[in-house]
Amino acid sequence: MKNIAILGSTGSIGTQALDVVRANPNLYRVNAISAQQNADLLIAQALEFNPKLVVIVDEGQYQKVKTALPHCQVSCGLSALEELATWPDTELLLTAVVGAVGLKPTLAAIQSGKDIALANKETLVIAGELVMDLARQKGVKIIPVDSEHSAIFQCLVGERNDAVEKIILTASGGPFRGKDKKFLQHVDKEAALKHPNWSMGAKITIDSASLMNKGLEAIEAKWLFDVEVEQLEVVVHPQSIIHSLVQFKDGSIKAQMGLPDMKLPIHYALAYPERLSTNFRRFDFMDYASLTFEKPDMLAFPNLGLALQALQIGGNAPAVLNAANEVVVEAFLQDQIGFLQMSDIIANCMQKVEQLKSPSLDEYLESDKLSRILAAEMVIGINKK
Question: Alpha carbon 16 to chain centroid distance?
Fold first, then answer.
């Protein structure tokens, strides 16, 4: 039995992780779970899986959860996420929350020596160097859960890092693949939320539509796999069958393939280093007459270029980019700004927030805060016009 804690058990990744646990009751025990505000689902999960600790971030829902779960320890607030991350007996923390909120609990878990199944890419986007340095110091494994990074991780098993020539991240292209800026000026959130291949949460789906998700993944890959910016490439692969590739210095390329189903990389991360049987639907080559590839259009989708620019600048630039993006995606989902205005605001924040080359954790967090304030002011400015 492996004791696991899930940071964000009611979201897309968290619920699918519990599906994996449900299908393998002799392999995993759920030690602790958390939710931002979905109290009803959190209570149902706790009643089914009987964790020792339950955290509801929304303090207004604390009494409801506490009353429904008299046999669990219930905590509330953002600080309680660090309590969950360091909960005794937990062997593996699955970080399945979205956004910067995942950074401090992940650092706390690493500090306490717990292995991480990482689905919160923002942790490495904001403070990748700091996080990976601490993981090395503590001898902690960080096992990626994003399908692209899981694919790269699997391709690198048994390989030396100095043999890697290039990492190739694949992108579906999202719902607006092939569209130009003129078209994108008028798209709404309903269209942006219709991803062609994946079922994901709203924020990640919008990031996929803007190609920001691929930019954030490139930043994450740089830190996870200790490669230079020049060794990263993004290729649009509309079928989402090849999840990513690694090219080696002898010219050989490894690819990890499978149907677009997040349960597979979740299952792999939870079971690692074992590779266990599943009853998941299998890929059949006869169902796909061809697999195609295209260059990403960074003129129509400038977010990818902004993310790669932030990666090239380094320091706090990715933290600024990420914070501004979180604000503008929420504003777009609230119909406050247009699709292309998201990129304009992010670019402005990157220009206006002071660049720091080697930030401390406090400086990363301050940069995050300043970028959010600036982005929010720009959203308000647009609404006043």
Answer: 15
